[in-house]
Amino acid sequence: MELLELRRQARAVIDDPALTYRQRVHRLAAIAENALEPPPVSAECAEALEKRVVCDLYEGNAPYRPRYVLPDYAVLLERGSSFLELAPARDLDEALAHLLIAYTQVPSITGYPVWLGDLDALLEPYAADVDDAELQRRLRLFWISLDRMLPDAFTHANLGPRDTRVGRTALRLERELLQVVPNLSLKVDPELTPDDLVRDAVETVFACGQPHFVNHPMMIAGLGPAYGVASCYNSLPAGGGSHTLVRLNLAEVALRHQGSRATFLDELLPHYVELTAELMQARILHLVEEARFFEHSWLVGDGLLSLDRYTAMFGVFGLAEAVARVLEHEGTPGSYGHDPAADQLAHEILERVAELVATRPMPYCEGSGGRALLHSQSGIDSDLGVTAGCRVPVGDEPALLEHLRTVTPNHALFPAGISDVLAFDETTRRNPEAVVDVIRGAFRTGMRDFTFNLDSNDFIRITGYLVRKSDLAKIERGARHDSTFLGAGSVAQSHVDRRAPKRVVADELDAGPAR
After folding, report:
1. Per-residue burial over 166-190, b = 16 or more CB atoms within 10 Å of its CB, e = otherwise
2. What is the domain partition of the chain in residue ranges?
3. Is pLDDT at 507 greater than 60 in this prediction?
């Protein structure tokens, strides 16, 4: 970056009246980082990045902190922290204070912690001697503090799979406070999670758009029992995380396709998967060997984080457009989400990518066997004319059962997370048990993550995070949550507020064709 351009960008940030002080500082830091040379890659990889066939998600030119950090907060509460000068937590007040203190010192790509831990499991032992009213009061102050101190909707907490007083209180607080932070997931296990807890969470979605629901046994099968769901449906080893998230634009790959399906699967995809992996590797090596994050982080020194629990995320998006392009070359009519031939091709493409990613070694990824983890990347605000992840395009979604049949077979391929946002109509409010049944059924047939949204509350689910419509209405005057700016872009560019609403109906009443 030339000095004049650097100064122009810095001045624009400093003079922007819509930005808070913290938002200015974060943007100025990014400008400074991007004045440096990026990690070296081949000319072909650099060209793919420049043309956004491969996308580094604007992580910055000089990685000096992992993209996603998932500390083992149980270690903090049980042992304390030498760096933070904290003794082990003895009661609920100390546990809440320890967590808030630690959160301010956890780095990430957003500048805020992306994972707050399994909050109910962490806090339940400290709540045993506190009555319900006092638990509600203390957790309410904690919940408000999270939103005010960490104003970014990528800040994510997990609940479940067991039923706890802390978890139930958290859901009540979500319905009462209607906050953006923390973003919330509920881990659901058919053996451990009672239906009335899932229903409680469903009714919380009616009020505030969250939590989303996680297939706990499926996650354990891919990541082991110690995992967390962070930021936008990013499933990663707890006590570790992800060095980077680099994504491959399948739509752009397909635009370079001219031959047969076999040519696309066996020649074009391997070429661009390798270029994506090359960029990932360069960024990991810089973080670990040049910036040496794991040699000086207090999280590693105090035992909350370990390099051998780390992985990297290989993201894909634009599947729907890639399918359309390859089918067009074959002369086959059909569109993803509506035709069996298109859905089958989509699965073939993803299986091929998964195979390639699983056989490509990646340095410092011992947390996933020395390989990257495949992730269905759920889009950013600058994406134009390309569908997030492996979703059916917004507004073109089929009826509920057909939608689930289309996307569910793909979920097994994405241990690092995949999301499909389902918009339900208002009739759902009158029958929350039906939604519980749908979630149970979806998980039983292989869905990894289940997320639904209602249009009638103040929340829009953008990708994995939420924004409030009331905040978007006054975006010109600025926003306290940094993520609101990204949400505004996604609403304007990708029209994520226009998802086709679905009724929850029985299979025998569904009008869609049998498949």
Report:
1. bbbbbbebbeeeebbbbbbbbbbbe
2. 3-35, 45-506
3. no
